[in-house]
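TA notes, week 10

Several of you asked for a full example with nothing omitted. So below is the full record: structure tokens for the whole chain, then the designed sequence directly under it. When grading your own attempts, check the secondary structure regions first.
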């Protein structure tokens, strides 16, 4: 018995030592470090298996591949716009608010995100409408179709889109697809073989063409981009799959937000796609061609910056943009997010805004799609409620929309959630829009969604069971790695 006890102590000490070495060999934030120490120390063997799939960082070589990609087509524009901003030529005072002017400079400095003007924006809340518009635009493509999705499922809508891309490739249109092998579980490169036989290209983001599944949870390509002829761009929260059309019995109606952009903001989306493509493929990189970056005539009145963030950047540009918007709000902040797991800086910004009398509303789903993530979301919802934030639970189906609107003047739609994963661990892309008309449209959509939601109260959380509260607190401890 004593021998068994000694063996167990030795195993425990070895496990603790291995946990410390494993966690500290990579540079990471203190909160994430302690979260992993907790998992590795109290879940021997199992914790290390989880770390292999979840905690292991992306190799320096792959990070370097992304960082060194040229921002094709816009490098010179970034330098020019920085100079124009200093000379107050880029943003005349009568065209934009002081907050927007500061945000434009923030993104020029942190993400080299150019400001584009005179864009037209169309908003989609329903998957059927979004895919109908997307399919119509792809059918009309003359030169190229570039597709980048976190999820591209081998199901009805996935096969419909692939078939359409095959038709365009057969007609001589350049077709390129980037898909994330983890997000597209069940879709292997075999799915795209006929597309490639017809002249198209499809590549898994930082993955292998082999059928062996990729279980690495972190550092995924969470972006959702489509660029057509360099003139039309789609960006937002919808992936490619039947569940996004409400065909999943588990989720029912799928409530998301996506936008279609026509105008020069598509140039920035194109550049983002090329950086991801050239970092992913080993050969046949895309080089600059004028047809990829056609200058658009005036399409609308929306000024837009396409902002990216991910493990390749030392600065969390999208999160900083959110904080800047919240800190400068004078009237209200409306947020929709499926996952509410903010870090301390964002949590404080939202709390301070609410304490200061700003109307802060946050809408989350009424059902989980990931158990731990949803329990952590509930914990932070309760914390923000205590600070005076209005929390709404969307009841009509699953809320997957990622939007922020401040004071009816600045709005954001994209792929980034309000969580650690979107800010630090995955590759994201958002459209920051400086336009009162588009902002008001998103406000109206939020107000309409409120009719299908329940406003949560302190009593709602107080009546929850001790077991549920424990799961929420425990999930919160793991929030930096969820």
């Amino acid at each position: 018995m004593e021998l068994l006890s000694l063996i167990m102590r030795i195993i425990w000490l070895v496990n603790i030592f291995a946990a410390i070495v494993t966690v500290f060999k990579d540079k990471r934030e203190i909160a994430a470090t302690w979260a992993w120490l907790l998992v590795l120390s109290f879940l021997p063997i199992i914790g290390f298996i989880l770390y292999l799939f979840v905690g292991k960082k992306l190799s320096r070589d792959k990070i370097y591949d992304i960082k060194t990609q040229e921002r094709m087509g816009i490098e010179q524009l970034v330098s020019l716009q920085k100079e124009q901003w200093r000379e107050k030529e880029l943003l005349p005072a009568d065209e934009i608010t002081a907050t927007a002017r500061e945000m434009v400079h923030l993104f020029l400095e942190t993400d080299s995100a150019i400001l584009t003007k005179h864009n037209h924006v169309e908003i989609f809340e329903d998957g059927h409408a979004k895919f109908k518009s997307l399919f119509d635009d792809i059918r009309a493509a003359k030169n190229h179709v570039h597709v980048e999705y976190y999820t591209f499922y081998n199901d009805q809508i996935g096969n419909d889109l692939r078939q359409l891309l095959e038709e365009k490739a057969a007609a001589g249109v350049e077709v390129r697809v980037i898909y994330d092998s983890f997000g597209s579980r069940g879709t292997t490169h075999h799915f795209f073989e006929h597309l490639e036989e017809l002249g198209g290209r499809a590549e898994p983001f930082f993955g292998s063409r082999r059928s062996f599944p990729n279980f690495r949870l972190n550092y995924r390509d969470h972006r959702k981009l489509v660029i057509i002829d360099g003139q039309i761009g789609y960006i937002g929260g919808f992936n490619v799959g039947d569940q996004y059309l409400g065909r999943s019995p588990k989720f029912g109606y799928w409530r998301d937000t996506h936008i279609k952009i026509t105008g020069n903001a598509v140039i920035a989306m194109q550049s983002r796609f090329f950086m991801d493509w050239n970092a992913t493929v080993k050969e046949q990189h895309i080089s600059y061609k004028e047809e990829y970056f056609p200058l658009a005539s005036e399409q609308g009145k929306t000024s837009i910056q396409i902002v990216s963030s991910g493990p390749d950047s030392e600065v969390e540009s999208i999160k900083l943009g959110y904080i800047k918007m919240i800190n400068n709000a004078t009237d209200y902040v409306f947020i929709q997010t499926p996952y509410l797991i903010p870090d301390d800086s964002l949590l404080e910004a939202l709390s301070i805004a609410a304490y200061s009398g700003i109307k802060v509303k946050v809408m989350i789903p009424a059902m989980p799609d990931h158990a731990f993530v949803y329990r952590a979301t509930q914990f932070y919802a309760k914390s923000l409620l205590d600070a005076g934030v209005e929390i709404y639970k969307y009841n009509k189906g699953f809320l997957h929309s990622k939007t922020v609107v401040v004071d009816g003047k600045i709005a954001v739609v994209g792929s980034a959630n309000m969580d650690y994963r979107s800010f630090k661990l995955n590759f994201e892309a958002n459209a920051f829009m400086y336009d009162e008309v588009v902002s008001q449209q998103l406000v109206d959509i939020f107000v309409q969604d409120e009719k299908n939601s329940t406003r949560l109260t302190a009593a709602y959380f107080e009546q929850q069971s001790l077991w549920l509260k424990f799961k929420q607190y425990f999930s919160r401890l793991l929030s930096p790695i969820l």
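The first helix runs from residue 2 to 24. Use that as a sanity check on your answer.
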